[in-house]
Write a structure and sequence with these properties.
Structural class: alpha/beta
Oligomer: single chain
Largest sheet: 7 strands, mixed
Distance between the termini: 44 Å
CATH architecture: 4-Layer Sandwich
Order of helices and strands: HEEEEHEHEEEEEHEHHEHEE
Number of strands: 14
CATH class: Alpha Beta
Number of domains: 1
Strand order of the largest sheet: 6-5-4-3-2-1-14
Shape: globular
Length: 324
Amino acid sequence: MEPYRGPVSDHFDGERFFNSPNGMPQGVGSLAKWLANREPGAWQKWIDAAPGSPPPERVSDGNLRATFVGHSTVLIQMDGVNILCDPIWSKRASPVSWIGPRRHRAPGIRFEHLPPIDLVLQSHDHYDHLDVPTLRRIASQWRPGFAVPLGVAQRLTSKGIAHDEQIRELDWWQSAEAFDRLRITAVPARHFSGRGLRDRNETLWCGYVMEGPSGTVYFAGDTGYGLHFREIGERFPKVRLAFLPIGAFRPQWFMGPVHISPEDAVRAHEEVGAATSVAIHFGTFHLADDGQDEPVIELQRALDARKVAHRFWVLDAGEGRGIP
C-alpha cells in the first residue's frame, strides 16, 4: 500500500499522523514492561448467548434506533438510512484465522438478519475495527457507501472491497453529504493506526458525527480522553445519541493515551452533552487487562458517583432500542 501524502496539519507531519495537541501510545519499552507484568482479569472462554431479534428494515419519521452488535460494531437506523459502524463478524481480530485475539461471544445479530446496509463508517484500520472478510461480505451483498479517515481508502480499494466512487475519505472536521438526508463529519479522536510492523500511523483515526432530520449522533470509535470531547459538544450542541467506548482500559498507565476508562466515558458523555449514550468496545475481545465484566461494573460505579441523572445505557449484544 502506498503511504498517504497530503498537506501538513496540526495532526499530520507530511508522512505520519499524530494526536493533537500531544499524546501518543506508549513506546516499545512501555509495551515490554506491560507484557512482562500483566495481571489480566477473568474472562469466560465462551459466552453462549442467543442472537438478538432481526432489526427493522428501515426507521424514519423522526425515529432513531440503535442496535449493539458487539465490540464497537453498531447499527444506526435514522431517516430511512441504515449505517453500520466498524463491522466485524470474524472469529478473530487478526490478519489470519488461526492466531490473534478471538471472540468470546458471537455477534449479537446474525449477518443474514441485517437490514440493507447503505453506509459503513470506519473509524480506523486496526483489525478489531476494520475486518476485511466482513467488509467483503457487506460490499458483495449491498454495495454501500463508505466513510473513512485519511489514508484508509486504499485499505478498501486494494482488497477489492470498494471503488473510489463509493468512498469518502475525510480529515478531522471535514464533512460529506449522504443520500441527500445526512451530513457525516469526521471528528478528532486520540488513538493510533497500523496493520503491520512498518505502517504505524500512516493512516488517520477518527470518530463521526451524523446529522439528519431525526437529530445528531456521535460515534467515538477508539479514543483516549482529551479536549476533543468538549469541542465536539461545542460544535454539535444537541447530540441525541453518543456511542462511547468503555473497555480495554487497564492498566491505565499504559492504555490511557488511546482508550478511555469507564470513568472517562462518563466525563465524555457530559462534555459532549449527549442526551443518551450507549457503551461500546467491551465484552467481545480480550484486548487489555480489564476483566470481562469490569468495564460495565466500573461504568455503573462512575455513574453512581456523579449523583445526577444520566441516560448511559449498556445494551446486551444484539439488543436494539429506540432512542428518546
